[in-house]
Every structure is written in structure tokens, then in C-alpha cells.
Amino acid sequence: MKIPLLILAAMCLTASAFNLAVPVERVVRSAGLVAVETGGVRLAGGPAGSWVEYEVTIPSWVKSFAVDVEWWSPRPGDGIAVYLYDYSALGSDEILGAPGGLDYHWRLWSVSTDRYGFTSSSPKFLLARGDNPGGLSPVDDGGRIRLLVYADGGLPFVTDELVYLEQIRWNISERDELWSPDSPGWGTLVIPVDSEGFDFERGYLVASAAGRPPIGEELTARGRLLAIRAATVQALALAVAYMGNVTPDTLNPDQLPGYRVLIREQLDDGRWLVEIGIPLNGPGGLADFLGYTEIRRD
Questions:
Q1: If DSSP states are collapsed to H, E and C, what string results for 161-219?
Q2: How many other C-beta atoms lie within 10 A of the C-beta of residue 7?
């Protein structure tokens, strides 16, 4: 189904940021078991997963944006994955978990399994133009953003995802909401040479963990997804622990800036290994997040 782009045309607003509700029926493209209904969209993962794609064109004055998706599921543990189209991706090595059948430009933004809604994270806001974590370029020259919501599939069918999308809200701002440290006195955070997790060669804080599928679901798509989620959560918690060894700032995994999945592979014992990397420097990196101009090695 093809629907013209939603254009956020010239708007006379005094606020620097505002929310715009977008009907979820405005699907541009879809695949799999998708039902577009009045007031919502139903996605059933089916054997190979299902997805819907949305497009929005933002005004030239927008500097940063975020997105909220209202959704729910009758099944505990089911969830959605939200992807953005990266116009700067150069090849398959840039992929960050795009579902099968989609090209390498799709980059995973965040995953939600709370059953009652999604709020963008990793990071919350992205820049319309400029240096985003991971080099992401989510807006084309005409101001278009492409967003994809995915429900995982698998066999038997009881292991696939079943979700209902109700609304999409874009939060657009004329300010840089990503690169906005609170501390007026920036400085340099010096990391001891032997500090664990800090990979200055690659420019990331690196952490890895392994997750095991639930018993009886080792070969299902749902089991794989749950194992990967568990490993990712553990890796993020480990990254927080690494940060706690070098700075007094109190952090939790939900507060970390955007991370990149560096490795995701199945181990011989059936577990899934996930290695994440959080940029140390640059807009949206750890230094910005903590209020420093730079993180460097001692």
C-alpha cells in the first residue's frame, strides 16, 4: 500500500520541541501478516516475521527528533523492534540486526517488550543532520525519515510475536537534544591504562555477555530473540559496572547513550553472545553524556 508522505509543513510555533501524533494506518509499505484496521495495525510474526514501514518529512529547521509508539500485546514477553533507515550505510558490514529480506540500510534503534508502549532510546534523541552515534544518517536531503516496526516470527506459530500498534508520536525539536551536556565546566576524563572495557583502538566502551534460550525454545525464533535480549541487558549492565570503576557518576543501563552491536553470534553450547560498543567521544558519546569534552587513556 502506498500513501503520500506525511509532510510537517511550515509551522508557526514558539516552543522548541513538540509532539506530533501520526495515525498508524498511514503505512507506506508492509510485509508478512499485517492487518491495517481503523484505529490500529495488527502484526503477527508468522513464519518469517512481519513489518510495517512509515515515512515522515520534517521541516528544515528540525535539529533533533525522537519517536514514541503506542502498542500492546495479549502475550507476555512479546515485543517490537524499531528500525531507522540509514542513508549513509555503505555495505552489509554496517547492518545492525535488520530483519531478513530487508537491505543493509536498516539500523536497529531500540527494542520494547513492556507490552504497553515504546519510547525511543539508545539514544532517546537523534540528530536530523550531524554526528549521530555509530555514524547514523537517518534523514535524506529532502528531510525524509523512514521508520520500520518489526514483529519477529517463528515456528510453531505460538512462538511468534503478536502486537497491536495504536499510535506513533514524533517529538521534533529546533534544538540539539542529543548533544546538550548539563555541566558548564567540561573537562577531560582520564582512564587508567588497565581499566577494563575501554577499547581506545576502536573508540568504544566494550562489554559482552551470553544469553541462553528458555528450555524447550532453543530452536525457535522466540527463544533466539529472548536469548539475545538477555545477553544485551547483561552486557549493558556490565558496561555500567566498567564505568563505575572510573567515575563517581551513578548510572543504570537505561541511561546509557546509544550503543552499537559489534558481535552477535550463537555459541557451540546454544547460547547467544552479544558484544556491544558505546562510543567514547563525539556527539552522543560517553564523554558528552557524562559532561566531559573528551575521554582519553592515561
A1: CEEEEEEEEEEEECCCCCCCCCCCCCCEEEECCCCCCEECCCCEEEEEEEECCCCCCCC
A2: 12
CATH topology of domain 6-173: Jelly Rolls (2.60.120)
Radius of gyration, alpha carbons of the chain: 20
> 16 in helix, strand or coil?
coil
Q: pLDDT band for position 277 (50/70/90)?
A: very high
Cell readout for 44 is 503477527
Residues in the chain: 298
Can you name the residues that pair with 144 across neighbouring β-strands? 57
- Concatenating the DSSP letter of every residue in 274-296 gives EEEEEESSSTTSHHHHHT-SEEE
Q: Where are the domains of the chain?
A: 6-173, 188-297
Most confident of 1-5, 186-190, 279-283: 279-283
Residue pair 56/6 in contact by the 8 Å Cβ criterion: yes
